[in-house]
Amino acid sequence: MTDFTKRTLIRLAGLGTLAAAAALVGCGKKEEPAAPAATAEAPAAKPAPLKIAFAYVGPVGDAGWTFAHDNGRKAVEAEFGDRVQTSFVESVPEGADAERVIRDMVNQGNKLIFGTTFGYMDYMLKIAGDHKDVKFEHATGYKTAENMRTYDSRTYEGAYMAGVIAGAMTKSNTLGVVGSVPIPEVIRNINSFTLGAQSVNPKVTTKVVWVNKWFDPPKEGEAAQSLLNQGADVLFQNTDSSAVLQAAEKAGKLAFGWDSDMSHFGPNAHLGSAIINWAPYYIKATRDVLEGTWKTETTWWGVKEGAIDLVSISDKVPADIRAKVDSIRAGLKEGSYHIWKGPITGQDGKEVLKDGEVADDKFLHGINFYIKGVEGKVPAGS
């Protein structure tokens, strides 16, 4: 057989092999064997954890607003274990930086994002419109979208209970409040604190100094000292640090903790701490996403839901006042006690709630006035 004939036969054999392979592929045969089904020895892979991110307006620290939110984040981890993966960015300003940070959270694959201050609202709404596959939760706001909802705590309930104690403990009948940012939430807390004080001591008046920041310990301390200089002997705050309580401790006066238990920062001055427990809501929101039941809504929880309380009440507080606070707490929990119930008069002397009239949530959300007994003017634009 000649070399030409051998080469021809080999070539034809090769073409035949290729044709056979092509026929097999054309008949739907796969060249790679199918992957084996999951067995007890080789279980199916676990789904990837739900990535959750939190944007905080202040540092986590060891007390206050952001500290309370981070405790809620930790509660989510404890509840769901390896089904979730959480992260946070602290000290995010209420401005363009908020948009940058939250967009970065989206780009990192987070599917549930919590923004924990009022000033993030419009930025979150904008980002939500660009990322419909992500769920956004905004604290203390009022704007929603199909994938963005709002949540808040009835902090005014804690403020009211603190006020009851303040009214009983003051000797000068002058109370002082360090206000953060003059939005309805904060004005509502100042008024509620005063209502609580007036319920046991109609003679009290409340002075307010605004710092226009949520977290600025030096400014908070200066504001507290200003109030002490004006005769206030019991201080309250709607700011995030323990500076107000520490100023009272140094001056030998009385004060309250806010958002978390601050008793260890001023053990002699401390009368009680109005705290927020974010854990119940954060667990609910996470479960909603994991179970596919998340929907747009507005949530406002208080004592009834375990989100608000007044804790670590000082032994200095008389037994009858402690009992009164216990009674109020029980009434708030069962829905029989109403803090904003008329008659209530505004600072200008006009009646804002008639005798027996109970404020609804729309009224409460829109409070931009001082009640009778609060001195000074509400800042413009509130």
UniProtKB/TrEMBL annotation:
Keyword terms of this UniProt record: Signal
InterPro entries xrefs: ABC-Purine-Binding, PnrA-like, TAT_signal
Database matches in Pfam families: Bmp
Assigned GO CC terms: plasma membrane
Keyword match Oxidoreductase: no
Signal peptide limits: 1-22
Domain (ABC transporter substrate-binding protein PnrA-like) ranges: 51-316
PROSITE patterns per the UniProt record, alphabetical: PROKAR_LIPOPROTEIN, TAT
Listed name of the protein: BMP family ABC transporter substrate-binding protein
